[in-house]
Design goal:
Largest sheet: 7 strands, antiparallel
Radius of gyration: 24 Å
Strand order of the largest sheet: 12-13-14-18-17-16-15
Distance between the termini: 22 Å
Number of domains: 3
Number of helices: 16
Strand content: 15-25%
Number of strands: 23
Helix content: 25-40%
Shape: globular
Length: about 475
Amino acid sequence: MSRSRLWNVVAAGAVLTFLGACATNPVTGKKEVSIVTPAQELEIGRQGYGPVTEEYGLYGDAALSAYVNSIGQKVAHVSHMPDLEWHFTILDDPTVNAFAMPGGYIYITRGILPYLNSEAQLAGVLGHEIGHVTHRHTAAQITQQQLFGVGLALGSIVSPTFARYSGAAQQALSLLFLKFSRTDESQADELGVDYATKAGYDSRDIPATYAMLKRISDQSGQRLPGFLETHPDPGDRETVTTALANTAVAGKTGLVINHDVYIRHMDNILFGQDPRQGYFVGDDYFHPTLGFQLTFPAGWGHQETHASVAAGEPNQAAVVQLAAAQNAGNLTPEAYLAQLATNKSITGSNGARETIGGYSAWVGHITVADQNQAPTTLDAAFIRKDAVLFQILGQSKQPGDVNEQRIFTTMRSFRNLTDPARINVTPDRVRVSTVNATGSFGSVVTALGARSADLETDAIMNNVRTTDSIVAGKLVKVVTRLH
């Protein structure tokens, strides 16, 4: 399940308990006190890969994934850790961002790719993330502070029983939301320019990336934080990287930008939210692929990933989340509840069988142990629809209060999605076109026909202003809805 603005349900503490040690920083060559060894960094990255891709999805374009990986590997090969097994993954997320995880796991969202305009710019972004890894910034952050898990799963708030992930995997997920220091960002900026240049790219094209990011930094409706939120600006990035690039390319020849090659790879890439994976219209949630809909309480905030959809009362007085039940197989709701009791995943239950939206269900309360092993009660519904047993969990501050009533109303609103207009939705995609006649960007893209995005979005995506002159023969990207 996908999309929507980031809504921090809670922060559940999860302290990494590694033994202290000294490790050599690959960039500086100096010994550093660290509670995370290089081997443990590898383990965090490895265990985090599955949960990250499950939560946010792999972008299903093998050719584009191979292309991005090839550029990433080229840049990583000239880094301070060329022998590390590097992984470059496109997440199926509309947010404009990229992330570094220890052990050489680099994630870049499909959301940022259409906004870049050359291989050199992509190399700069990937080089920046590679720099976070080679400079061991994450290990330093872990050493200096406790990490807190973001509300990716309602179960993690109240009980390990219903958390989809645990241990290093959950901790690795929290690293996606880690904010590096301004010093870290300056170092990563410098390394990104250095690595991209050494990989054969003209790094003077990189500063335009930061100009673009500034123009979209005020965008809302993202469930993952944007680049400038997770990568705080250490200063005037565009000016600083311009100076770094000018120094890096001095005396070098044969450096490439590869604008057109990159732009052609953006043709048909998904842009923005993909309604096929679930979408909100007001407080109504529709999932065309799984064929269901339900209504969340009015005015509650929303959070979505590929794995779940949740809503929270604005004052954090209540939360409710829908996801697929784990290890449910073909069990009925009652049989699944019995399995939870047998496995001691729950210590009690009080409810009854119901029919919700024409489907077999169990609705009531379950008792579980919270993070401190104290008993706590959850509102719960298990609904069997075709091959999926849906699990809806909720909790309000006071049992029986108005918010609990709203949670149960949400549970009982689950029903089949039958409206063709809600089922037959298509996502926006990027279309690459060749300009036929020179003119302003605004006139050029208007002549291309129907578009889905506003003119300013298309301009930002091409790193131009709407009044800039675009010459005939140039490739431009516009957002359109293909039917």
